[in-house]
Request: fold
Amino acid sequence: MPRIVVILPTPLRRAAGGTREVDAEGETVAEALSSLRGLHPAVARLILQESDLPRPGVRLFLNVTDVRALGGFDTPLAPGDRLSVVLPMAGG
Reply:
């Protein structure tokens, strides 16, 4: 099963013990997100709904491409891929 790196924005790093990156594993983006529940539950609670899909407004980029422009959550992963989490912005 491919092991990937999940890159966290600054507001989520505290939940990951202060680190910028955490590991996940899976054949697809959906599987990798699901694996976060077991590997990094504090991070998963902040970015995922109970269905293991991202919370509203959370965007995911595989390497440099938005997963929505690829195969969505069914996008296959390769070892060493980097999945970046982008949180919604607030303000005016």
Observations:
- Strands lie at 3-7, 21-25, 59-62, 65-66, 82-86.
- Residues 3-86 form a domain with the Ubiquitin-like (UB roll) fold (CATH 3.10.20.30).
- The chain has three helices and five strands.
- Residues 44 and 62 are 17 Å apart (CA to CA).
